[in-house]
Each structure stands twice: as C-alpha cells, then as structure tokens.
Design brief:
two-stranded antiparallel sheet; YCII; YciI family protein; Dimeric_a/b-barrel; alpha+beta
Length: 147
C-alpha cells in the first residue's frame, strides 16, 4: 500500500524552526529519508518552496474557465509544505514511519492512503483505467532500466 505523508506546520512550528541551524534540519531530514530508502519504503518526497517567494498559484474551478490567482493564502496550519510517498505493508507501518519524522511541536503529518488500481475494480473496462495500468508498467520498466 502506498501512503502520502503531508507535512503541515503551525506558525509556532515555523518560528521554532528558525531557531535551529538550517544545516541541522537538512541533516535530520536527510537521515530520515535515508532510513526510509534503506528500508525500501520511500518512493518519493519533496519539500515545497516558501510562499513568500511568490511560487504558488491557486486554480479555482468554481468558474468557467477556471480562475488562476496567486496563492494559496490561508492560515499557516492549513497549508502543506512538503510530502513523502511511501510503500508499506499496512496502515500501522505507515503510522510508524510517519511518527519517526524529525518534526517538532506544532508540526503535523497527515497520512493518507494513495488509491491503487484495485480501488477502481468496478471500472476495469474503462479506457483510462486500462491506460493508467499501462503507463504505470512503462514507468516501472523505465525505472528498472535506469538502475
């Protein structure tokens, strides 16, 4: 099963992180990532750029055509600032790995199962469900060829 860990922080956590040398944060995150890679559970993960850099956009689909604006603008605790995707055997294992993340007070990880082909079994005849399976196989073959 794949799970996504969605990282969120309160303003308290953001301020507290400013008291920690950035190289220490990099080392703690690097060690956490390395432990998941060595265990064979980490499929991917990225941090997201700070919104103060003007790097974010919001696409609002309540209008036709969708409205694109700068953002997101919301309370700090509503925004997410990074994620990991892991492949584990159970929800409990996902919770265990999430609990090991080197995050401080005020930080939260939302753990969500990523849907899989079996979630769409009732639509197995759908053209795009079938294409999705082929695309995933092609990606696996490509990744296997690059190792």
């Amino acid at each position: 099963m794949k799970y996504m860990f969605i990282m969120r922080a309160t303003e308290e956590a953001v301020q507290a992180s400013k008291d920690i040398p950035f190289e220490q944060i990099i080392n703690q995150m690097g060690a956490y990532n390395e432990s998941m890679i060595n265990a064979g559970v980490m499929l991917g993960g990225e941090g997201l750029a700070d919104l103060s850099e003007g790097s974010g956009l919001v696409v609002d689909f309540s209008e036709d055509p969708p409205l694109v604006t700068d953002g997101p603008y919301g309370e700090t605790h509503e925004l997410f600032n990074g994620f990991w995707i892991v492949q584990v055997g159970s929800r409990e294992e996902a919770a265990e790995w999430a609990s090991r993340a080197p995050l401080g007070p005020g930080s939260k990880l939302e753990v969500r199962r990523v849907t899989e082909a079996s979630d769409f079994a009732d639509f197995a005849d759908n053209e795009y469900i079938q294409k999705e399976e082929l695309w995933r196989q092609e990606e696996e073959n490509l990744n296997a060829g690059n190792k």
